[in-house]
Amino acid sequence: MGPCEECEQVMQEYLDRELSQAEVEKAEAHLDGCAYCRRRYTFEVSLRRYVRVATSEQMPPGLKAKLALLRTPLD
């Protein structure tokens, strides 16, 4: 497994701050030298931010009612 694959394997744990100090240092060294993995990391950070914002905003009541009308029964 190459360094990019290794970085991909630990990306979520890195973002969740679940890696050991040695693993963090290894991941950061790779991210510092690899533009592809750095872009992937930036994307993951942006995605997590988007999800946090999207799930914290209340859905307008009118939209909620329209979506409820689209439900189909599970027979």
Write a brief caption for the model:
The chain is an all-alpha fold. It is built from 4 helices and no strands.
Overview of this protein structure:
- This protein is an all-alpha fold.
- It has one domain.
- 76% of the residues lie in helices and 0% in strands.
- It is elongated, with a radius of gyration of 19 Å.
- It starts with a helix and ends in a 6-residue tail after the last helix.
- The model has no long low-confidence stretch (mean pLDDT 91).
What is the count of β-strands?
A: 0
Helix content: over 70%
Compute the number of helices.
Answer: 4
Most strands sheet: none
Number of domains: 1
Give the tags.
elongated; mainly alpha; 75 residues
Secondary structure layout plus pairing:
Layout: H1 3-15, H2 21-33, H3 35-56, H4 61-69
Helix pairs in contact: 1-2, 1-3, 2-3
